[in-house]
Amino acid sequence: MEFLRLMDQAQFSFLFRNSEGTISAPVWRRWTLALTGLCLVLAGVWAAMSSWTHRDLAVQGLFDLKAFLAFFYLLLYASLVLLAQISQYNLSAKRFRARGYSPAWASVWPLAGFAAGAAFWAQPNLFGLMPAFAPWLVLLVALGAFAAQFYELALRPD
User: Fold this and answer.
1) pLDDT tens for residues 67-105?
2) At what angle do helices 108-125 and 65-99 cross, to 10 degrees?
3) Which of 15, 41, 61, 77 is the most exposed place for a label (fewest CB within 10 A)?
4) Buried b (16+ CB within 10 A) or exposed e, 114-151
5) Alpha-carbon distance 113 to 78, whole Å?
6) In terms of C-beta density within 10 A (0-12 exposed, 13-18 middle, 19 or more buried), how is residue 44 classed?
7) What is the rounded CA–CA span in Å between residue 78 and residue 81?
8) All residues at 6 or more sequence positions from 49 whose CB lies less than 8 Å from its CB, including other chains
9) Contacts of 150 (CB under 8 A, 6+ apart)
10) Which of 46, 48, 40 is nearest to 72 (CA)?
């Protein structure tokens, strides 16, 4: 897998740690797919572990190893997704600049994804104030933002 080849510190810093410069569509596409794949794998692990966080203290003891591991993973998961989306912003800002657009547009997709995640978290915690279909609408908007950005930055000819 070519996109997983090792890179030196300068390449890593240029791609993921700052938003200055420009990159080509194949570079943006390769690293966007890698970051998206990472986030999907992390989300899959969380989906498998999230049921461990539901506990009944009347039945279980105060400390439960599975719950501890699930909440520890949640902290790790949130940190890694945040870092991945910062890297995604930096990649997209470079590509938007190369396409002649404002690099500020690079924030649309990550923010839409975070809004969808927040809607899915908030809906069951708002006790009927948000209809059950609302998070799915926000997710649809986020997927639209992803599709539009992917088309503009990866598929549309220069």
Assistant:
1) 999 999 999 999 999 999 999 999 999 999 999 999 999
2) 150
3) 61
4) ebbbebeeebeeeeeeeeeeebeebbeebeebbeebbe
5) 13
6) exposed
7) 5
8) 69, 70, 73
9) 32
10) 46
Fill in the amino acid letter for 132.
Answer: A
Give dist(CA 82, CA 69) in Å, integer.
20
Q: Are 67 and 53 in contact (CB under 8 A)?
A: yes
Phi, psi of 22 (to 5 degrees): -135, 155
What residue has token string 């190893």?
65
| pTM as predicted | 0.83
Distance of CA 89 to the CA centre of its chain: 10
Place of tokens 């992390």: 42
- 131 touches 121 (CB < 8 A): no
Instruction: Give the tens place of pLDDT for each residue, 9-64.
Output: 777 777 788 888 899 999 999 999 999 999 999 999 999 998 888 877 777 778 88
Per DSSP, the residues of 93-143 read: HHHHHHHTS-GGGGGHHHHHHHHHHHHHHHHHHTTTSS-TTHHHHHHHHHH
